[in-house]
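Q: A reviewer asked whether we had any structural model of the full assembly, not just the individual parts. We don't, so I'm hoping you can provide one. Inputs are below.
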Amino acid sequence: MAYIKISDLNFSYRDDDGNFIPVLKDISLEIEKGEYIAVLGHNGSGKSTLAKLLNMVIDDYEGMTGKIEINGKDITSPEITEDEIYELRKDVGMVFQNPDNQLVATIVEEDVAFGPENLGLPREEIRRRVDDALATVGMSEYARHEPHRLSGGQKQRVAIAGIIAMMPECMIFDESTAMLDPIGRKEVIETIEKLNRERHITVLSITHYMDEAVRAGRVIVLNDGNILLDGTPSYIFSKPDLLREAGLDLPQCADLMLRLKKRGIPLEGDFNTPEQCVRSLLNALHK
Amino acid sequence: MTPVRIKMSKITVENVSYVYSAGTPFEVKALDDINLSIEENRITGIIGHTGSGKSTLVQMFNGLVRPDEGRILLDGADIWENPKEIGKVRFKVGLVMQYPEYQLFEETVKADIAFGPKNMGLDEDEIKNRVSECAGFVGLGQNELDKSPFDLSGGQKRRAAIAGVMAMKPEVLVLDEPAAGLDPAGRASIFDGIVKYKNSTGAAVIIVSHSMEDMAKYCDYLIVMADAKVFMTGDRDTVFSNSSQLENIGLDIPQITKVMTLLCEAGVNVSKSIYTVEDAERALLKLFGGVR
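A: Here is a predicted structure for the entire assembly that you could use as a starting point for your response.
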């Protein structure tokens, strides 16, 4: 059974005049437990709306048809109980774009403890979860620091630790690296990959960075509320024309290699990283 | 005797230092003895890790932050010579802060872009000209100009906000992360608009960004900041040929430049100084043509 199953989903917002504005159109999607998925799409393509529906930040279903099931439960069903919604929200954690808007406490470990405290867990359990979460994101030595004095990448990792302490099944990252410098981005991406690899947390990462998308196992491209492409990074980035139509671009590596292939140079393998490109180029040169 | 002509920089930063929370246990040195010059008719990029001092520095250019030590010279004159006159500097130096679209407030996009020029006391015709010219730079058409800013997409809103600053025709245009959070098409239209503004006005343009790809593509000159100091300055060839040094201070080189650098290191005879996919394609085609 798929962990997340979306069937024939249509979703519209209501504007100030009461008109429905369609945002998501005929989306059907199955996500298995443990997948690492990047979601791409131009601004306004519906990515964030989809994420907010899955995390139940949006829970007004007036403009919606179709079905969203998480772990076999239909989240939009009128029969769903408060307790079940509470459980589901805990299972699907979300990390947002701006690190400064997500931290609430004055000490790092208190911030991470905020979620588990609200679950009413015993003290020892909270302590254990906080220590474990901070170790997972590599921030243990900052446990007693003040969040506002950390770098952007460190703040985002603390925000991630706060979610991990809730023991989620799935985590959604809504452009969580958009405001970070290159090293901060690297720290956060490596943390996301570790969570997926070692804890088998299902990851949905919404991003505008093509070089981040190539690191996922599967890429979904949204365009004007529709699913335009769904497949491995190598498959997605072999469709440059479709991507450009959707306001997106190729990662520089894939762009270069496809152009060269078009000119008849026999290049083989994946072109997702500079290292892969160079290997393929060297092979072709030495033929 | 012929007079000696000295070329004057648009902005000169002279021994500037700045400390946040001075005298408290949280004292942080944001800028430490900075010396720089910013030239006209050039796009200068400032790169550096979070907390390296970039934003503090650019906020000094229009007098939002006053140096603790040192001077900021605009056309050779200290902008803090007479602190009461600092408002005049802000007409000459336009600052586009991060996420400027949150500052849109008028009923139409047109009125929003016209707000700055109106405050400068310009006449109706001049305001009208500037609105359509600057909307044109950033690719907003009549259709968008008549809309409410709140009916625009995120990328369009950002472009409207930038056009609003451009419409004041600042001699120095400073943009802090102008393309953050936008999709590739949105990023390209912002940067194209900035290049058009520079070409049409000859202004000194300063861009702060974390995207090495964008900076390599659009900037004529780069300033690298690290730990409150100027780490390196130069054109992109000079700066991006130091990839290991950049990595040490938390930065990177553009992906395409990395491919070329790795090829060089593997003994292939290509230039490392390549920043666009088009140039890389050309260089490699030549190479493959050569071996066959």
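A: Points you may want to mention in the reply: The radius of gyration of chain B is 21 Å. The interface with chain A takes residues 26, 48-51, 153-155, 177, 180-186, 210, 212-213, 250-252, 254-256, 258-259, 262-263, 266, 268, 277, 280-281, 284-285, 287-288, 291 of chain B (CB under 8 Å).
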